[in-house]
Amino acid sequence: MTINVEPYRIKAVEPMRVTTRAERQAAMAEAGFNTFLLRSEDVFIDLLTDSGTSAMSDSQWAALMRGDEAYAGSRSFYALEQAVQDIYGFPYMVPTHQGRGAEHLISQILITPGAGQYTPGNMYFTTTRAHQELAGATFVDIVGDKAHDPTAVDAFKGDIDLGKLDALVREVGAERIAYVNVAVTVNLAGGQPVSMANLRAVRDYCRERGIIVWSDATRCVENAYFIQQREAGYADTPVAEILREMMSYFDGCTMSGKKDNLVNIGGFLAMRDPDLLQKARSLVVLYEGMPSYGGMAGRDMEAMSVGIREMVDDAYIAHRIRQVEYLGTLIDEAGVPIVKPIGGHGVFLDARAFLPHLAQDVFPAQALAAELYLDSGVRSMERGIVSAGRDPATGDHRRPKLELVRLTVPRRVYTDRHMEVVAESVVRLFERRGEIRGLDMVYEPATLRFFTARFAPLR
Ligand code: P70
């Protein structure tokens, strides 16, 4: 099929409101030029995130009603556990309220405070690194250099550079690697996938040295689709099978169910080692809830168990990725600089190249996200210097090479017509990019500043 047709039809709709520019100006000022602080009622097309914003299927809505709300031993827990075993192939799992709950648990379990440990990974992710640092480890970026270059075209820009991993291991010793964390796909690189060959090589390298390999499996189905499309030998393999092979190379994973699993809340920590399961169970009661529900309601575990089975449908995942690609292609063909290749969950505008007249210290991506909202009511997310935060050692801004605005596409929510409206607005901004000014940060919270920082336009 050459048309990227939706493999579902619409059964319920949610009206949305078109606002005036004056209304948007007032809303943006009130939000301190931070798209996280806008009220969603004031947003037209909401591309802030693909997290918790999916449309559930009729089967998932029906599953909510089946949810078993027993405090202990809920049938819905067993349904979820079964889905994780069947689809991911991990024998054990502990539910958490969302992905960062699982990151918290695994960081506390595998990192010993004061031991000078390291947690290498293929590019940082905000919450993941924050939990690793909180537990006392130092994050080291071991993604290939191409991931930091928005224009470098490569089928698997998320691949780990084994040379970088080996250099770290030689420098500090394998025993000081708490674990290697492999994200599939890599969010902040632009939703870039990791190849099966690379996963296998990382597993082999770590197994020889007794190093644990964990995965941030948040968008692993999207990664599996890219392997099917791009890696030799997988063209005829169903995504479900590719996913099982990918997961077979890990000792366990953290999962934010709010993405791939097609639910609005939930997550889990999965593993093979019964010892780690015991540790996770004793920690989860402290921070989340009983091991049979973590932070989740029975109905949410039930809906997630259905979503986990739906996510590996080849027609669904092909449509999802191709819709993102459609948005990216419209923007790219107009000459607007974006991260290439187009990733799995969104299109990332290259704010450095878009606004070359702005220094990184006046927050070009933050300014561009604000302008996009003012132009059309489209909400996007800064993924640049604001997201990167400050270096805990020096207190100075971390200055990432990538200064991006993410247009993240929720799953099964918008049509290609919506994508066309977004592209039109981006292109309109590009045509008058010279007028766009930087911002001054007027309020900065101590941790994960991007969520609540406030800005004012520079004159
Ligand atoms: C996003 C969301 C969440 C996320 C992720 C990866 C690769 C873990 C998590 C945490 C939400 C978000 C989070 C921090 C900053 C901005 C937005 N990503 N790993 O929009 O999962 O949110 O369930 O705790 O992408 O990218 P959770």
CATH topology of the largest domain: Aspartate Aminotransferase, domain 2
| Percent range for β-strand residues | 5-15%
The level 1 CATH classification of the largest domain is Alpha Beta
Overall number of structural domains = 2
Descriptive tags:
Aspartate Aminotransferase, domain 1, Aspartate Aminotransferase, domain 2, 459 residues, five-stranded mixed sheet, three-stranded antiparallel sheet, single chain, binds ligand P70, 12 strands, 2 domains, 40% helix
Write a structural description.
By secondary structure, the chain is an alpha/beta fold. It has 2 domains: 21-50 and 313-457, Aspartate Aminotransferase, domain 1 (Alpha-Beta Complex); 58-310, Type I PLP-dependent aspartate aminotransferase-like (Major domain) (Aspartate Aminotransferase, domain 2), CATH 3.40.640.10. Helices cover 40% and strands 12% of the residues. The protein is built from 16 helices and 12 strands. Helix 1 (21-30) runs antiparallel to helix 14 (364-376) and helix 8 (220-230) crosses helix 9 (239-248). The termini are far apart. The site of ligand P70 has 16 residues, from helix 4 and helix 5.
